[in-house]
Write a structure and sequence with these properties.
263 residues; alpha/beta; seven-stranded mixed sheet; 6 helices; globular
């Protein structure tokens, strides 16, 4: 009888060793009672954030497909699988995070696919998803508006869950549909849409390039073809895809030629 508790203790010890070997972890996952990043500087992250907006997402995702862009260790991918999604694909550019995600899915016995891919290549998926998750990625990109345009054009079928770090004013200033060239504008008003450019580092991270204020986040989402359905958490938006007209200056998305330059 005493061997059963001992075996369970050994299994937990082995799990802890595997988790430690795959560190460091940015996401604090709870895998069979073991936390991957219990000393996270944000606390039990991203669980504490997820709890603030989880009720805004469909409870039952049966028959649905989900894409998690910038999935990290797979927290949101696994949560969507727990809600019954038929297909969940998580993509990231960091193989370290993807190894963590695959391990977490395997140990949790969840059928979730993880693939190394950047947001710039999502057209290659040739697939649209009922829910696309884009949490904590925008400000790490040198070309954030292009990323939103690509997501709208290629992968969102219906719902789009978005989150970005925000700094600056939380006000939303009214913006006219047009301004005369000589008109006095309110560019410096606290609530005017702004993106703050980070030339070097922010929070010791050289991948932090742009930090929008609240007005800018909402304006970018609307401009890219997403109707804001809800803002269940301070930085989180649940949006719905809508068609957009091609503007006079051409389609929003651009596709730089790859390969050797002709110059």
């Amino acid at each position: 009888m005493s061997s059963t508790p001992l075996r369970a203790e050994e299994e937990i010890g082995s799990l802890r060793d595997h988790i430690a070997a795959l560190g460091p972890w940015f996401q604090n996952l709870h895998i069979k009672g073991v936390q991957t990043a219990p000393e996270h500087f944000l606390g039990d992250y991203p669980q504490i954030k997820y709890e603030r907006f989880s009720d805004s997402l469909p409870r039952d995702l049966a028959g649905k497909a989900v894409l998690d862009i910038g999935c990290n260790a797979g927290f949101y991918s696994l949560e969507m699988k727990r809600r019954g999604a038929d297909r969940v694909l998580g993509i990231d550019t960091d193989e370290h995070y993807l190894t963590q995600a695959r391990f977490a899915a395997e140990v949790s016995e969840m059928d979730v696919e993880f693939r190394r891919m950047s947001v710039w290549d999502i057209a290659d998926l040739n697939e649209r998803f009922d829910l696309v998750i884009f949490m904590g990625v925008l400000y790490h990109l040198r070309h954030p508006l292009l990323a939103l345009d690509l997501i709208h054009e290629h992968v969102v079928r219906d719902l789009f869950l978005f989150q970005s770090m925000q700094r600056g004013s939380r006000e939303i200033a009214p913006v006219d549909p047009d301004y005369d060239f000589h008109a006095e504008l309110h560019f410096d008003a606290p609530g005017y849409p702004k993106m703050h450019f980070v030339e070097h580092r922010y929070s010791h991270d050289e991948t932090n390039w742009w930090v929008p204020n609240r007005a800018c986040v909402q304006a970018m989402l609307r401009s890219s073809g997403f109707s804001i359905e809800a803002q269940p958490e301070e930085e989180v938006y649940l949006c719905r895809w809508r068609p957009i007209e091609i503007p006079p200056d051409g389609p929003h998305c651009i596709y730089p030629a790859r390969g050797r330059s002709n110059r």
